[in-house]
Amino acid sequence: MDAVFLQFLNGLDKGSAYALIALGLTLIFGTLGVVNFAHGALFMIGAFCAVVMRKILTLESVVLSTTEKTPWGDAKEIRTPYIETWFGDVGTTMIEYSVIFSIFFAIPVMMFIGVVMERGLIKHFYKRPHADQILVTFGLAIVLQEVIKAWFGANPIPQPAPASLTGSVDVGIWLGMTAESLVYPLWRLIYFAFSAIIIACTFAFLQLTTYGMVVRAGMADRETVGLLGIDIDKRFTFMFGLAAVITGLAGVMYTPILSPNYTLGMDFLVLCFVVVVVGGMGSLPGAVVAGFLLGILQSFAAMNEVKAILPGIDQIIIYLVAVIVLMTRPRGLMGRKGVMED
Amino acid sequence: MTKLTSGISRRNIIKTSAVGAGALAMPLVFTGSAGAYTNEPKGSDVTFGFNVPQTGAYADEGADELRAYELAVEHINGEGDGGMMNTMKPLSLKGNGVNGKKVKYVTGDTQTKADAARASAKSMIEKDGAIMISGGSSSGVAIAVQGLCQDAGVIFMAGLTHSNDTTGKDKKANGFRHFFNAYMSAAALAPVLKSAYGDDRNVYHLTADYTWGWTQEKSIVAATEAMGWNTVKTVLTPLTTKDFSSYIAPIIASGADTLVLNHYGGNMINSLTSAVEFGLRGKQVNGKDFQIIVPLYSRLMAQGAGENVKGIYGSTNWHWSLQDEGSQAFVKSFGKKYKRPPSQAAHTTYVQALLYADACERSGTFNPCGVGEALEGHKFDGMGNGPTEYRAADHQCFKDVLVVKGKEKPESDFDLLEVVEVTPRAQVEYAPDHEMFAGGSLGKCNPGA
User: Fold this and answer.
1) Residue B424, pLDDT score
2) Is residue A186 exposed (0-12), middle (13-18) or buried (19+ Cβ within 10 Å)?
3) I want to staple A155 with a disulfide (CB 3.0 to 4.6 A). Which of B60, B101, B230, B295 is the partner?
């Protein structure tokens, strides 16, 4: 039973990442009608925002030692981060909390990247077939991936969570179980809570603000909103930027779980498209529900007891679910009529 | 209509055309060249082919291998400080190239994919006239390229390949491996693990689902069971797995107190990160501290895993901190040129290039059969692993193996592992017909033409 709870938590955690990425993907599709295959790259760039932030915080002064030498005979370099020189222990703490600082760094960076991507490239493909959009955005994803590899190398770059937020917590005690029966990594719980907050904020923005209301109206009937004198294109550009921010933040917070490397975007891309299709193209609640659902199912499918009965099921479960959902509900779990049916 | 005479009929023309087209379509490599063997060098230089991952997950490892090859070629041609050519014994190379010819090299990108690796090796042999192929950072790739080189009639000096199969069931007469293997890792690690963690452990294995993972698991299971450890479960993980949390969670409920990660590269970085994240290392099971073991380490992997490697045992082929004359000479050369210490991948590829060149010089030919004969049973020293022998029976190098541990207080990005034991060669040696290496045979050397 404990193992089932553990896999459930694990599924929630995986689902958090899937839901966040799929939410951004659906926002773009719902507003602009663009099938964005470069969306995984936004997740990767978000993760690399954390890498860049840590690099900035650990910029070092280099002094050549007069006494110590490297094994090849050069004077040894003594490196000290500037921030530690200037702020002492506060500087050390800032480096330790670099992932948290990265959130504030990633928001403007991802918004900028999103807006540039939309204005610079994707807007030229609004009226083109979806196949063209897929080709150009997939090409863009490959370019972004190679750029990241050229700058940062192919090896994963570890981004540790702050020491006070690492380790495991005894979730079992919270649920009235015996001590040590259900232990789960603290950072993964934080990731789940963070995702829940971001998802809630996104829905609140769309449902409770005038701006969000106009965007929703534009998603339903773009032309009529335009006729009312509202510059819906500008708002949709902002929404593209917002989707990039959501996806980027998902990437930033995921770095202590999975060390970022240049393939990170492609690793999540196909999976998140499956999430969006299962949830229903253009449905924001569908993306979130499907994200968590597939995350949980994937975790349960990975249990040894399940694999003993159905070997390899963990590798195909989400695609199997996608087939079943699309056969029984062709528009996905919460898809709207008319979306992607032209 | 004119009737064709003298046996020239439409049918004959079609037949002849078909044979001609087939001959043209056949790769040059399988038809041989004008010389006595494939790509026999005619001019004043000879071309080596270095086939390493320049893109893909092991691109950093490949980059280090290329640095080492570049350095090796410099030293063979008499440039630079000579590196291990100052310490290698015996040495026939004179610092003027090989057999009086200056060494040039071409490179290929394996992409860590067997098909791509074969294609790039084939291209270097057919188009660039490479006399030999060396490199690789994966056993799947090494075995595939070794097979190609056997058919093509060139020598393959394997790079980083650790599967027992490379010099076991998939061994080839034209293939030679300097790197150690999974059996050796297990044989070296077992006594150290017994002394560190006792002889009563329950072990859970996560294993990469491909040739290297299978042989690594088999080797370490046999070695640990022989010293009394109990294998609780072995679980294969697809190579494409990134998030290992689903595989780690069941370990907690399994009653195991030890986890062996038969993973390499990105797999190892991610699985170790997940294991540490789930608190396995701080856990107490059966009254014992939970332990994690990584049978095959590399410094580049350790860099990727960061702090998680601290205190974790594994094995490695070579480490830059070794104090012997050969290692020091190589570290000095490499460090001066590239401002960093070499990785084990760099070391093994550098040594392979030198060993090949030296064998050519000793045999006085580039003919793969002559070179292979010179390498078979060759005993040498001064290259970082103590007295070493290229065993004739399987073309596997036998030498000391290093047991290492993640360093608790690293002083730099490169200073992540500490050597805890140099396991003597005798302890990791096995019979050529050992069950883990059974099947397959070297066959006959193929000179190509």
Assistant:
1) 96
2) middle
3) B60
How far off is chain A from B13, nearest CA to CA, in Å?
47
DSSP A126-155: TTS-HHHHHHHHHHHHHHHHHHHHHHH-SS
User: Coil, strand or helix: which one is B2?
Assistant: coil
CA distance A140 to B401: 46
A250-268 pLDDT per residue, tens? 999 999 998 898 989 988 8
Mutation target for B interface from A69, A70, A296, A318: give the one with most B CBs within 10 A. A70
pLDDT under 50 in chain B at which residues?
A: 1-8, 10, 13-14, 16-33
Tokens matching residue A20: 């966040």
| Yes or no: domain B183-316 corresponds to CATH 3.40.50.280 | no
- How far apart are alpha carbons B154 and B448 in whole angstroms? 7
Residue A158 at interface with chain B, using a CB cutoff of 8 Å: yes
Domain with CATH 3.40.50.2300 in chain B: 45-180+320-398, 183-316
A120 interface with B at CB cutoff 8 Å: no
Interface list for A 173-202 with B (CB within 8 A): 183-185, 187-188
Pairing of strands B202-208, B258-262: parallel
Burial class (CB in 10 A: 0-12, 13-18, 19+), A58: middle
Taking CB atoms and an 8 Å cutoff, what residues of chain B touch A315? 238
Partners of A303 on chain B (C-beta within 8 Å) are 246, 250
Side chain identity at B373, as an amino acid letter?
A: E
CB of A71 within 8 Å of any CB in chain B? yes
Give the CATH superfamily of B45-180+320-398.
Response regulator (3.40.50.2300)
How crowded is residue A88: how many other Cβ atoms within 10 Å of its Cβ?
10
A103: part of which helix (H) or strand (E)? helix A98-120
ipTM of the complex: 0.80
Of A149, A156, A168, the CB nearest to B266: A156
Nearest by CB to residue B243, choosing from A14, A158, A183, is A14
Chain B residues within 8 A of A145 when measuring between CB atoms:
none
Residues A66-75 have a mean pLDDT of 88
Q: Which of residues 133-192 of B touch A (CB under 8 A)?
A: none
